[in-house]
């Protein structure tokens, strides 16, 4: 409360002083220091500080646009300019100030590199910042610089990127910089194929920054890593970390994990996550989320349990599912219904010429005659493809099976048909899921 009161007074004084002609404007470095305090509160979960951060960024931006060259004789103001820029500042403002200052040497490289990064010009940013060592600069600038350099090369050089993220954490512990460094280290650990490092980073984030407003990005990376590493991360370790979260967060993580595991065909992991989501809901005395039932059913469909799956799906209310999950629900029902569909009647056998049959019987042993006269079954691959097409058509038609009037294949094909059907449909669901995610991203833009 004390910090909020001080910052509120600071904001009020900064806003009215120039208009009232009350003395000199506040030094830029003091304003940036206040901005850092607010951002650190955000990292610890004070979401009420978000409006204050926006206002401080606005006021700091205005202050830097009017700053004089003489004011940068105080080194703290140049440091503050760099911190402001890397804290979500305005690249146009940074460009204006740099053109006014015309810095030289490492300051020029730092300023131009940060400006290029803010404008998305990553190759240029990497070139300008390459010679700068974050550990040799002022800690508050070095921490941000390490974070920026790690972010630039994360995809190309994940090992080096993780090293920069560690520097950022070392230089700015307990701050929004450390929060971002931990969060951005997760994809790099996945790229490096290091499940132990990944889980260690996850635990550090959960223990320190789970209340951050950026925790949803962490959750996405956490679940993606669990799916990528699969059985190399055991369920006990997952449970130990997720148990550190609040019940609502636990359920959200397990539901995300169940869905992604289902799409990837990771049956045991999906069953584990679905069951944990149910347990958390029961312990919290909250209604069970229908998605837990849906994901468990879809991941576990086999020829042997198709009836049980249908019974489970009957308990799911599709109206309570998102459009994306309704597609999965329809696919699950279609797969189970296909497995339970009655076998086709055997095709009629053409009458055999009596004389030819008699001649054959003279040459073929009696026990073989019946086998020769039995009808050939339909090609198993052809039957499987037909079933797959029916499911694919159903998904495209929004849940209505496209019938060509033909019944299902003969019973002796069931096992191979069902196995192929489940495998094929799971691959289709993965493609559908990606298309739906792309559609969601377009809607958000």
TrEMBL record:
Keywords: Signal. Residues 1-19 form the signal peptide. Residues 353-424 are annotated as: Disordered. This is Chemotaxis protein MotC. It comes from Nitratireductor mangrovi. The lineage of its organism: Bacteria, Pseudomonadati, Pseudomonadota, Alphaproteobacteria, Hyphomicrobiales.
């Amino acid at each position: 409360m004390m910090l909020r009161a001080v910052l509120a007074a600071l904001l009020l004084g900064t806003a009215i002083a120039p208009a009232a002609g009350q003395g000199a404007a506040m030094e830029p470095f003091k304003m940036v220091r206040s901005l850092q305090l607010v951002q650190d509160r955000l990292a610890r979960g004070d979401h009420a500080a978000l409006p204050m951060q926006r206002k401080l960024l606005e006021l700091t931006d205005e202050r830097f646009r009017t700053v004089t060259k003489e004011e940068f004789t105080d080194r703290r103001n140049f440091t503050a300019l760099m911190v402001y820029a890397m804290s979500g500042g305005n690249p146009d403002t940074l460009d204006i100030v740099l053109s006014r200052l015309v810095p030289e040497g490492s300051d020029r490289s730092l300023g131009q590199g940060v400006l290029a990064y803010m404008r998305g010009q990553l190759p240029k940013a990497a070139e300008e910042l390459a010679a700068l060592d974050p550990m040799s600069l002022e800690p508050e600038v070095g921490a941000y610089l390490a974070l920026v350099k790690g972010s630039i090369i994360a995809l190309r050089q994940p090992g080096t990127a993780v090293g920069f993220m560690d520097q950022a954490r070392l230089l700015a512990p307990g701050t929004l910089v450390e929060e971002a460094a931990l969060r951005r280290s997760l994809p790099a650990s996945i790229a490096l194929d290091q499940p132990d490092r990944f889980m260690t980073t996850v635990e550090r984030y959960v223990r320190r920054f789970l209340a951050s407003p950026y925790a949803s990005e962490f959750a996405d990376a956490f679940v993606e890593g669990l799916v990528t590493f699969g059985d190399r991360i055991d369920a006990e370790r997952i449970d130990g970390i997720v148990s550190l979260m609040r019940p609502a967060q636990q359920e959200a993580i397990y539901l995300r994990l169940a869905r992604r595991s289902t799409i990837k065909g990771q049956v045991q992991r999906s069953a584990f996550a679905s069951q944990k989501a149910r347990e958390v809901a029961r312990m919290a005395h909250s209604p069970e989320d229908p998605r837990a039932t849906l994901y468990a059913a879809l991941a576990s469909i086999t020829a042997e349990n198709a009836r049980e799956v249908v019974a489970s799906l009957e308990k799911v209310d599709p109206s309570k599912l998102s459009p994306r999950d309704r597609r999965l629900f329809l696919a699950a029902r279609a797969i189970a219904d296909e497995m339970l569909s009655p076998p086709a009647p055997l095709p009629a056998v053409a009458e055999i010429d009596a004389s030819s049959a008699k001649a054959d019987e003279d040459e073929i042993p009696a026990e073989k005659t019946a086998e020769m006269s039995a009808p050939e079954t339909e090609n198993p691959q052809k039957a499987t493809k037909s079933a797959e097409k029916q499911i694919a058509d159903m998904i495209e038609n929004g849940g209505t099976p496209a019938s060509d009037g033909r019944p299902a294949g003969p019973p002796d094909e069931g096992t191979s048909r069902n196995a192929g059907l489940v495998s094929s449909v799971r691959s289709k669901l993965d493609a559908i899921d990606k298309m739906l995610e792309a559609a969601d991203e377009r809607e958000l833009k």
